[in-house]
Every structure is written in C-alpha cells, then in structure tokens.
Amino acid sequence: MLPISFEFFPPKTDEQRAQLDRTATLLKARGPEYASVTFGAGGSTLSYTGETVARLHREHGIDVAPHLSCMGGTRREIAELLDGYRAAGYRRIVALRGDLPSGMASPGDFRYAAELVRFIREHSGDHFHVEVAAYPETHPQADDALADLRHFKAKVDAGADGAITQYFFNADAYFRFVDDVRRLGVEVPVVPGIMPIGNFSQLKRFSDACGAEIPRWIVKRMQAHGDDAESVRQLGAEVVAQLCRRLLDSGAPGLHFYTLNRARPTLAILDQLH
Ligand code: FAD
Q1: Is the pLDDT of residue 45 over 60?
Q2: Phi and psi dihedrals of 18, rounded to 5?
C-alpha cells in the first residue's frame, strides 16, 4: 500500500472540530501511516495540538505525530510536552523551529530545529521517531541554498529519522534536493509534502509567505478558470496527482498531504493516483 500521512491543524471551535472529525473519518479509510497536527508558535495553540492528537488517537484510532516547534519555548516546557506525549503512547514527533510571532521578543532556549532534535534525543532517547522539515526550494530565510542544505544535514546528524518537505509543484527541485543531501551523506527518507489545490487565491498567498513557487503555467491555467471553483478543483487534482505519480515513480518514499482539515481535495488526488 502507498505510504501516506495526513497533516491537520488544531481546530478551535466546535464547528471546526466537527469538520475535522468528518475529514479524519474519510481519510482514515485510505490507510494512513499516521496523522500529524501542527503547532502554533509561542505556545498559543499548545493545548489545542495536544487535544487534537488525543482526539485523533483515541476517537479515530489513528497513529499521531504532534508537531513541536521550539521557537519561544523553554527546555522545561518542551520536556513537559515530550513527557506528556510519551505517557500518552505516541511514538512520533515532527520537530521544527517555528517562527517567532510578531511582538514576541525572546526566541526561547532554542535557536534552530537541530538544537531541538538534539534535546529530544537527550531527553527521550530513542522513544520518538523524529521527522524534521526540508525545503527543496530553499528555506525563505536561508543565507544561501548550500548553507541551507548543510543546516538540513545538521538536523539529521542531531538525530532526526526522516524529513517531510515544504510543498512544491516542481518535481525537479525535490529530486535535486534529495541528490544534494545524499551527496552530503544524508540517508534518511525525505517524504514530499503535497499541497492539494483547493482555493487558488489562498494558495498563492500561502506560497508567497512560505517561499514555495507556483510555476507560471499553473498560475495561468488556474487564472483562466477564474471563479469556476469546480474547474479549478479538477485541474488542481489533475496537476497534483501527476506530480505525485512522477515523485513515486522516481522513488519518493511516500506522500505527506497538507489537508488543511478538508478531505475532498486530498481524496480527489488519491482517487486519480489509484
Ligand atoms: P531550521 O531547520 O532551524 O531552519 C530555519 C532557518 O535557519 C533556515 O533558513 C536554515 O538554513 C537556518 N539555519 C539553521 N541552522 C542554522 C545555523 N546553525 N546557523 C545559521 N542559520 C541556520 N511551523 C510552525 O510554527 N508549526 C508547525 O506545526 C509547522 N509545521 C511544519 C511542517 C513542515 C513539514 C514544514 C516543512 C514546515 C512547518 N512549519 C511549521 C514551518 C517552519 O516552522 C518554518 O518554515 C520555520 O521558519 C523553519 O523551521 P525549521 O524547523 O525548518 O527550522
């Protein structure tokens, strides 16, 4: 079976919780390895991440991977979270630096994700399978692309078991990234992060902020469909399913879907893949 995982964000209202329940039920039927849940920087959604993984684990029977971002956090706070996740029986963590929320002055006890990974290993030994973030199109704040590759390697050297990439629409960027880090001696699996195209204008805003490039031909084709949401969705599913097929055919070890808590765009891609 195709190794897939799904990413959710923590819902904050009853309506959003009900939406996540519906989505989790539909997506669980596709046999994911696990579901990961994002973490808001600066502790603002700390409790929601824990609450959400607990719900997915207990009520939906899905293996979970809470994201843990260290920006703004202290060693003590992170240690408490790790102990709580361990006591709950979780075996996976996605370890990130996160971004400092505007207005927050102190970055906390950790500067980079590699330091967090090292701390997780010191504190919890080998209990957790640790995933880290990878950027085939280079992290937007990186000084240069080669330094970014070395910083990625530092996370693996610190003890990460695998990586999930930022989403991308250019398969060659992923292949190049994997070749480059293999040359640096990195052997862990690098799973492509896949962003289904649902709402195109939202995706464009998102992509500008996180440094993911949408190829001009996709932008132009999407713009040609204008407000015809159904055509945008159909074209989006086709384009992303083709990307997934190419990635898998060329050896990608699995797919991690950024679901944005909605089942339909991800299911449309999976249906085309099968
Ligand atoms: P790092 O690996 O620490 O890298 C950050 C930057 O610092 C890079 O530019 C790197 O080149 C540079 N750098 C690293 N080490 C050094 C060094 N020693 N000296 C100088 N520069 C260095 N954000 C959230 O807030 N919550 C989430 O749940 C979340 N989930 C994510 C999941 C995935 C799969 C991905 C790809 C991203 C996610 N993010 C999340 C976003 C992420 O937190 C941001 O992209 C953040 O800016 C960088 O995090 P990182 O873990 O990649 O940081």
Answers
A1: no
A2: -65, -40
Chain-centroid distance, C-alpha 213 = 17
> For the chain, what are the domain ranges?
4-273
The total of other beta-carbon atoms located within 10 Å of residue 145's CB is 14
- 230-251 pLDDT, tens digit each: 999 999 999 999 999 999 999 9
Q: Is the pLDDT of residue 42 over 60?
A: no
> Contact 214/242 with Cβ under 8 angstroms?
no
Encoding tokens for residue 17? 């919780």
Active site residue 115: no
Q: What pTM, to 2 d.p., does this model score? A: 0.97
Q: What is the pLDDT of residue 143?
A: 85
Q: How far is the CA of 140 from the centre of ligand 1 (A)?
A: 9
Which H or E element spans position 130? strand 129-134
Task: Indicate the burial class of 31 (C-beta count within 10 angstroms; 0-12, 13-18, 19 or more).
Answer: exposed
Bridge partners, 66 (sequence order): 37
Question: Domain 4-273 class?
Answer: alpha beta
Tokens of 5: 């995982």
Which residues sit with their C-beta closer than 6 Å to ligand 1? 38-39, 41, 67, 69, 94, 96-99, 112-114, 133, 139, 141-142, 147-148, 151, 155, 164, 166, 193
Per-residue confidence (pLDDT) for residue 46, from 0 to 100:
58
Instruction: At 34, list the tokens.
Output: 């696990």
Question: 167 and 194 in contact (C-beta within 8 Å)?
Answer: yes
Q: Which one, of 181, 202, 175, lies nearest residue 132 by Cα? A: 181
